[in-house]
Structure formats: structure tokens, C-alpha cells
Q: What sequence folds into this?
């Protein structure tokens, strides 16, 4: 029995380690910024967290963005799998532990990318609700003591699953709703004078940047997202 128990425990640990390595969990390791570093909080869903990207803590977009920005910046990943900007049910990002942590971080810059999960039929209501809930989320960060600059992103694009019917996306993602979200984000960026990053446009036409499900970017997709964020931050700071 002790041998069997040891085998079971070993397998469990290996499976947990593999899940963490592949970004299949919401486990993360936050670290304190050094004095003088510009603090960047990346807020979002599984695209931000880096789900299904091997060696997720090194290859997710926030990690890649941190390396691009260099030692003068400190980038923290507050992405959470399956979460929404819409604050209508338990899928809301604001009901996660990462939301208050991202505020306690007292960031200088906040990058928000939420919308993919909002497009699902069980979450979606309409463009107006999505826009106003995004506005409320943005304002909550603008009111943080550190008064961060906020960059709002459209959700990344989605791709059909090969061999499935047209207009069939993984997890119930809805293209029509995604496009309405993009419109809402563009409007908010203009109305609130925010930094704007069109991640939908950045990732359009590049299915090779995605994993098997057509929804989650791979390492190269994460690099493209990080590059877009890097350009937005560094151009504005000049």
C-alpha cells in the first residue's frame, strides 16, 4: 500500500507540475517591484494569463513584455482564466482575488484586455452593458492612489476549428459579439482619452499564432501581443 500511495502522489505532483507548466491553472507568483521601477499591471483573462502556452511564466505576454521593456519596468500578470469585464455573474474579473491585488500593486500603467469570455452566450447581454461595465472597471483603476495610465485593448481575434462547421468557435466564443466589443472599446478609448491597443487587428490573419483551439495565442501570438503593448507604452512615454 505505501508503494501504491507513493506512486499516486508522484503522478499527482507530476500532473500538477505539467498543468502549471502548460498554463492550465490560475497559479501565479507575484513579486515586489524594485525602487524606481515603473509598475505595469496586465489585467485580463486566459490570453493574459497565458493558458496552454508551454513554460507559461516565461512565455505569457506579460512576461515577454517585461523583457522587452527592460529593467526599468516591473510587469505583473493579473490574468485569470474564464473571466469577463461584464460584472453580471461569478465570471466577472472583479470577483477574483487578482482584482484587489492588481490595485494594491499601485501600478503606474494598467493594460486591460477582457472580452473573449464576455462574447459567450451565457455571459453576453449587449454592447451597451459591455461598454458601461468596461467603463466602470477602467474608472476603478483610474481612482487607485497611484493614478495609473490605463491602456484598453480589444480582445484578440478568434479562428474556426479545422474540420468543424463554419462560424463554429471553441468554448462558445461569438464573433458577432467580439466585433461589437471592439466597437465599444474604440469608443471608450476616445471618450475617456485612454491608451488604445487594437489586439483584434494585431492578431487578425495569423492563425499560426494560435493553439489548437483557435482562441488561445501560442508563444508567437503572445509575442505579437506583447510587442503591440510595448510599442504603445514606449511611444506614449516619449
A:
Amino acid at each position: 500500500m505505501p508503494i501504491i500511495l507513493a506512486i499516486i502522489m508522484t503522478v499527482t505532483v507530476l500532473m500538477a507540475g505539467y498543468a502549471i507548466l502548460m498554463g492550465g491553472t490560475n497559479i501565479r507568483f507575484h513579486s515586489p517591484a524594485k525602487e524606481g521601477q515603473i509598475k505595469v499591471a496586465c489585467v485580463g483573462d486566459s490570453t493574459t494569463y497565458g493558458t496552454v502556452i508551454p513554460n507559461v511564466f516565461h512565455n505569457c505576454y506579460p512576461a515577454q513584455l517585461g523583457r522587452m521593456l527592460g529593467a526599468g519596468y516591473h510587469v505583473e500578470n493579473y490574468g485569470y482564466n474564464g473571466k469577463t469585464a461584464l460584472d453580471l455573474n461569478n465570471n466577472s474579473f472583479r470577483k477574483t482575488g487578482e482584482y484587489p491585488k492588481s490595485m494594491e500593486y499601485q501600478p503606474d500603467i494598467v493594460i486591460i484586455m477582457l472580452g473573449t469570455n464576455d462574447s459567450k452566450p451565457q455571459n453576453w447581454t449587449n454592447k451597451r452593458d459591455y461598454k458601461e461595465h468596461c467603463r466602470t472597471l477602467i474608472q476603478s483603476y483610474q481612482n487607485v492612489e497611484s493614478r495609473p495610465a490605463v491602456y484598453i485593448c480589444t480582445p484578440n481575434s478568434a479562428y474556426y476549428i479545422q474540420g468543424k462547421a463554419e462560424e463554429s468557435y471553441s468554448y462558445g466564443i461569438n464573433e458577432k459579439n467580439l466585433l461589437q466589443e471592439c466597437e465599444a472599446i474604440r469608443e471608450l478609448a476616445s471618450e475617456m482619452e485612454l491608451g488604445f491597443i487594437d489586439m483584434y487587428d494585431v492578431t487578425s490573419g495569423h492563425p499560426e499564432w494560435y493553439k489548437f483551439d483557435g482562441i488561445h495565442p501560442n508563444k508567437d501570438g503572445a509575442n505579437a501581443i506583447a510587442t503591440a503593448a510595448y510599442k504603445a507604452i514606449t511611444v506614449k512615454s516619449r
Observations:
- The radius of gyration is 18 Å.
- Residues 111 and 131 are 16 Å apart (CA to CA).
